[in-house]
Amino acid sequence: MTSGLFPQPASFKEKSRVYDLKSRLDWGEPALTIVDVRDRATFNQGHIMGAISIPAEDLVGRAEASLERDRDIYVYSDTDEETAAAATRLREAGFNRIAEVTGGLGAWRAAEYPVEAISTVA
Fold this sequence. Notes:
Layout: E1 15-16, H1 18-27, E2 32-36, H2 40-45, E3 47-48, E4 52-53, H3 59-66, E5 72-76, H4 80-92, E6 98-101, H5 104-110, E7 115-116
Parallel strand pairs: 1-6, 2-4, 2-5, 5-6
Antiparallel strand pairs: 3-7
Pfam family, one: Rhodanese
Domain Rhodanese: 28-117
Protein name: Rhodanese-related sulfurtransferase
């Protein structure tokens, strides 16, 4: 049997399109973490479903405390430049599998993929 007969999720890439990430999520691959590096208030207004909030200013310290260095980590922000800067910081801190989600939340929404928000109403 050839593997071409069976659909496969997108492979890990350091620059990933939202489609690549969604493909892995749809495949049911739990061995990845999605990190939103925008500030917490912006994260609460809307983020990629399943993402965790680690604002850029706390990124390396919180990542070192809570994320595995060899885990696939998908990072995004408001701009590709902010995403690249966050990814560089994680790579320099010794995280080996960092993927930059190009287009961030805007591209995710444009593709009509699920977004979640955190209600701030008490």
